[in-house]
Amino acid sequence: MLMNRNDITLLMDSIQRAFEKKDLSAALAYYHNDISFTSPAFPAPIMGKEALETAFRKHFDTPQVTRMSFKDIRIQDLGDSAFVVLCRVEGVQTVLLSGRRFNGYLSRVFVSQDDRPLIIHEHFSLLT
């Protein structure tokens, strides 16, 4: 599963659009069944797609809207069946009329399943 930088940038943007729309099925379609997911938005790491669906469902039901952009995207090829994407993240989280800016780092490990990349590990860390 060799992807070029442009394809990976489009993939990352597509994933973010699903989150911004709070489209649960579209967002979950990018994740492997054996996902390991860590984010400051959740109190503990989430293991497995079923648990991730439950967490996302609760998160998507909140009034907050999160917009993120990816900076300094780095790609590490792990062979023909996997790659890692590392990047800085800048964004804003809005609840009603108040907003909070944030930045941090995101890493996603993708593996090939049915000739398409799925996230098997995701870790998001906030700096501010």
Provide a concise account of the structure shown.
This protein is an alpha+beta fold and 128 residues long.
Biggest sheet, spatial arrangement of strands:
2-1-6-5-4-3
Computed CA radius of gyration, to the nearest angstrom: 14 Å
Can you count the helices? 3
Overall shape: it is globular
Overall mean confidence score, pLDDT? 91
- Largest sheet geometry: 6 strands, mixed
Q: What's the CATH topology name?
A: Nuclear Transport Factor 2, Chain: A
CATH class reads: Alpha Beta
* Percent in helix: 25-40%
Kindly name the structural category: alpha+beta
At CATH's second level, what is the architecture? Answer: Roll
Total DSSP E strands = 6
Low-confidence stretches: none
Q: Name the helix and strand elements from N-terminus to C-terminus, one letter apiece.
A: HHEEHEEEE
Give the DSSP E fraction (strand runs of 2 or more residues).
over 45%
Supply the number of structural domains: 1
Oligomeric state as shown: single chain
Key phrases:
128 residues; alpha+beta; Nuclear Transport Factor 2, Chain: A; six-stranded mixed beta sheet; 26% helix; 50% strand; globular
What is the fold's blueprint, element by element?
Elements: H1 5-20, H2 24-28, E1 31-38, E2 46-47, H3 49-60, E3 65-77, E4 82-95, E5 98-113, E6 116-126
Describe this structure in words.
By secondary structure, the protein is an alpha+beta fold. It has helices at 5-20, 24-28, 49-60, and strands spanning 31-38, 46-47, 65-77, 82-95, 98-113, 116-126. The chain has one domain (5-126): Roll (Nuclear Transport Factor 2, Chain: A). A hairpin with a 7-residue loop joins strand 1 and strand 2. The longest helix is centred in the N-terminal third of the chain and has 16 residues, at 5-20. The radius of gyration is 14 Å and the shape is globular. The termini are far apart.
